[in-house]
């Protein structure tokens, strides 16, 4: 009962507030005291966001910024209901896979002019990230941070199995061989974690095999092409060889937890785990990171959070000013110094690297050169949500990879055709 | 209007306003939305019965209703258990409250906390349940990672969570049964078991009926357990384990198909109304209002 009604209530709130949306946006008066809200979903990063807000307020005494931290499961529904109903926060974090819906729906403030007048250098951001926040030639968000993928590995397990650490010479075969050698069922240790993971997993290997995920134009996917199948097989082969915990095991205990409890020796994933692994006392001196292996070529998907503003804000001028500040070097430096994330702004990453010197974090920055934006098309959340269901039979060995890939492609194309 | 009538209106106003704002209005807007295509942003368009037609042909909806139905049937098995337990607790002469508190604790515990603890208990590799089963030489399963077992795993938790409130209602019902009836039957030579089936159960049947109605409604709306136990990033059992309210949540608030979500909610409402009406019809044959 409760949940149905909370949902219904949210719907009702949307309708009620929609009726009161006729206020004219206040004209920018610099003397006027103005309050902006800035929403995020990360407790870990909230202190850094507060620090950035404080710095901005020092420069703009007439603007107060309130940082709001929402829990991740509620973030997108709260934002969507707010944006549709006129009560959204002024500034907020955006993700590439949600971005298109918001930009298309006219919920985001256009920053194209601000970029020009404030002299923001768009080349200071990884192109793959800034591109993903551009819609129909207009800029709607400025990159906050970015992540690329690498091989997180456990040196102690490599040493115990007498296998040399991964490095930039590794290709696919070396990963397969090493994973096999590192696996020791008696000790409950596996060489690698091979879940059905798009961003850290098969998207990268599909691209490394020379494939694409969404065909140019965004109206069809390419999961059943020979390159994509090869990219998927990279993972199903690891499953077949027993070099990874099974899908069921990885459903019960997430891959990252397996890695942290030293049950798996390798974990393909992003830069965003650095701080967590760094803080884990059990992993002290045991963990490092290497570039993803090379297939036909080098590739990694990349994505990053963008700072966007609400089109229905009451203070558009102040908001633009704040967003420009968020996209600038100072905000990036604060983020790097606190060690929380890899800032998107060029040349500000050094403090982040220095904050965890035992990891070869430069790997993630070098990867920008061969990075590809995370694929987005149509209702990305919907077709991505179908992956586990369609690909699981291939991972379990119940269906040939080609067949599962073909079925998944058909399901994705159906979603893409709905627009 | 007399002054007392005015006062009466004033007194019912808070409740009425709450009812209209929190129940009636959301219900009406959900009903309207179920006939619309509601995009994430921008105006909704009327699409007639499209949502309902799509829903009828959507395998995912049927599967979710199937899962919810299975869950409901399983959770109903908790009612006989609650009746027996309530009767046993009634027999206890000292520390009755202790038992009530123990059984009631899960009711007042946050569902999130309950879900987290059971997720650990059910873990296939490190879980407590499989560990205990291994003492008896029984092979464990991946209870919440294998779609064959998830609904049963949820039902076990659902029964446990609902037990406390059922025991309170049934306990109150038991105390309303006159002691004289038991004394008279004892004189006639009826044993405890016979008393249970021939006195306790029939005289308690109005309470049992009430508990059944509540249980069915709550079970058809199960959401929190699946949300907490299965919504990890890569749980491959999720696709086949969705309940109807989970599907509603996913459509309306993850995929932002609010019109379709609203249609699911309306269909669920109708199903619950039918299930409840059916029970009221059936009660004539088994509920005994002495």
Automatic annotation (TrEMBL), chain A:
Protein family: Belongs to the bacterial solute-binding protein 1 family.
Q: Which InterPro entries does the record cross-reference, listed alphabetically?
A: Bact_solute-bd_prot1, SBP
Task: Please spell out the taxonomic lineage of the organism that makes this protein.
Answer: Bacteria, Bacillati, Actinomycetota, Actinomycetes, Streptosporangiales
**Is Transport found in the keyword set?**
yes
Which domain of life does the protein's organism represent? Bacteria
Name of protein: Extracellular solute-binding protein
Primary location: other
Nucleotide-binding: is it a keyword of this entry?
no
A family per Pfam: SBP_bac_1
Q: Which CDD domains match?
A: PBP2_TMBP_like
Location within or outside the cell: Cell envelope
Give the record's GO CC terms. Answer: cell envelope
Q: Which UniProt keywords apply?
A: Signal, Transport
Q: Where is the signal peptide?
A: 1-18
TrEMBL record, chain B:
Q: How does it sit in the membrane?
A: Multi-pass membrane protein
GO aspect biological process, one term: transmembrane transport
Identify the keywords attached in UniProt to this record, alphabetized: Cell membrane, Membrane, Transmembrane, Transmembrane helix, Transport
Domain of life of the native organism:
Bacteria
Q: Which GO terms describe its cellular component?
A: plasma membrane
Under PROSITE patterns, the record lists: ABC_TM1
**Name of this chain's protein:** ABC transporter permease subunit
Q: Where are the transmembrane segments?
A: 7-25, 69-89, 101-121, 151-175, 196-223, 260-280
Q: Which InterPro entries match?
A: ABC_transporter_permease (IPR051393), MetI-like (IPR000515), MetI-like_sf (IPR035906)
The protein's location, in the record's own words, is: Cell membrane
Taxonomic lineage from the root: Bacteria, Bacillati, Actinomycetota, Actinomycetes, Streptosporangiales
Originating species: Herbidospora solisilvae
- Family from the record: Belongs to the binding-protein-dependent transport system permease family.
User: Which residues are in the ABC transmembrane type-1 domain?
Assistant: 64-279
């Amino acid at each position: 009962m409760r949940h149905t009604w909370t949902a219904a209530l949210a719907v009702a709130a949307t309708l009620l507030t929609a009726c009161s949306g006729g206020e004219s946006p206040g004209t920018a008066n610099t003397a006027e005291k103005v309050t902006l809200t800035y929403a995020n979903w990360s407790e870990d990063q909230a202190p850094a966001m507060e620090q950035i807000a404080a710095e901005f307020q020092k420069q703009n005494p007439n603007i107060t910024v309130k940082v709001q931290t929402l829990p991740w499961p509620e973030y997108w529904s709260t934002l969507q209901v707010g944006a549709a109903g006129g009560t959204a926060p002024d500034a907020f974090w955006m993700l590439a896979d949600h971005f298109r819906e918001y930009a298309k729906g006219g919920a985001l403030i256009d920053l194209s002019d601000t970029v020009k007048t404030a002299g923001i250098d768009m080349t200071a951001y990884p192109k793959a990230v800034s591109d993903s926040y551009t819609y129909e030639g207009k800029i709607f968000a400025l990159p906050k941070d970015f992540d690329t993928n690498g091989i997180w590995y456990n040196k102690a397990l490599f040493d115990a199995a007498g296998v040399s650490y991964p490095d930039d010479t590794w290709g696919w075969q070396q990963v397969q061989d090493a994973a096999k050698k590192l696996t020791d069922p008696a000790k409950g240790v596996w060489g690698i974690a091979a879940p059905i993971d798009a961003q850290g997993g098969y998207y990268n290997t599909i691209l490394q095999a020379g494939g694409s995920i969404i065909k140019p134009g965004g109206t069809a996917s390419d999961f059943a092409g020979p390159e994509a199948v090869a990219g998927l097989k990279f993972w199903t082969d690891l499953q077949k060889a027993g070099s990874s915990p099974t899908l069921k095991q990885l459903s019960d205990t997430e891959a990252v937890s397996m890695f942290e409890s030293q049950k798996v020796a390798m974990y393909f994933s992003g830069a965003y785990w650095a701080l967590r692994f760094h803080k884990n006392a059990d992993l002290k001196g045991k963990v490092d990171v290497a570039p993803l292996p090379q297939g036909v070529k080098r590739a990694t998907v990349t994505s990053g959070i963008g700072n966007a503003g609400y089109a229905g804000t009451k203070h558009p001028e102040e908001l633009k000013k704040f967003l420009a500040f968020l996209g600038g070097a100072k905000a990036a430096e604060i983020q790097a110094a606190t060690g929380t994330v890899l800032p998107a702004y060029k040349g500000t990453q050094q403090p982040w690297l220095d904050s965890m010197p035992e990891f070869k974090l430069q790997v993630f920055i070098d990867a920008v050169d061969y990075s590809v934006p995370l694929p987005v098309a149509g209702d990305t959340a919907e077709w991505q949500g179908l992956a586990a269901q369609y690909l699981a039979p291939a991972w379990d060995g119940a269906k040939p990879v080609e067949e599962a890939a073909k079925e998944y492609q058909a399901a994705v194309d159906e979603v893409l055709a709905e627009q | 209007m007399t002054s007392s009538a005015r006062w009466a209106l004033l007194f019912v106003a808070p409740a009425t306003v709450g009812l209209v704002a929190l129940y009636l209005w959301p219900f009406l807007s959900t009903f309207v939305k179920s006939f619309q295509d509601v995009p994430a942003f921008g105006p909704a368009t009327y699409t007639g019965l499209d949502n309902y037609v799509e829903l009828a042909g959507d395998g995912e909806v049927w599967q979710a209703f199937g899962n919810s139905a299975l869950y409901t049937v399983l959770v109903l098995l908790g009612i006989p258990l609650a009746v027996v337990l309530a009767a046993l607790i009634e027999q206890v002469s000292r520390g009755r409250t202790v038992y009530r508190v123990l059984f009631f604790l899960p009711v007042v515990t946050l569902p999130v906390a309950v879900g987290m603890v059971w997720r650990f208990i059910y873990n296939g590799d490190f879980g407590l349940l499989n560990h205990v089963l291994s003492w008896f030489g029984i092979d464990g399963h991946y209870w919440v990672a294998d779609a064959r077992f998830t609904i049963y795993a949820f039902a076990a938790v659902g029964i446990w969570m609902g037990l406390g409130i059922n025991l309170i209602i049934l306990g109150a019902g038991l105390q309303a049964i006159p002691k004289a009836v038991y004394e008279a039957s004892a004189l006639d030579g009826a044993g405890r078991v016979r008393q249970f089936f021939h006195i306790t159960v029939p005289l308690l049947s109005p309470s049992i009926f009430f508990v059944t109605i509540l249980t069915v409604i709550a079970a058809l709306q199960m959401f929190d357990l699946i949300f907490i136990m299965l919504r990890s990033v890569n749980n491959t059992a999720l696709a086949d384990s969705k309940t109807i309210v989970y599907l509603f949540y996913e459509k309306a608030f993850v995929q932002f198909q609010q019109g379709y979500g609203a249609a699911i909610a309306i269909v669920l409402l109708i199903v619950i109304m039918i299930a409840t009406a059916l029970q009221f019809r059936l009660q004539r044959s088994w509920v005994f209002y002495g």
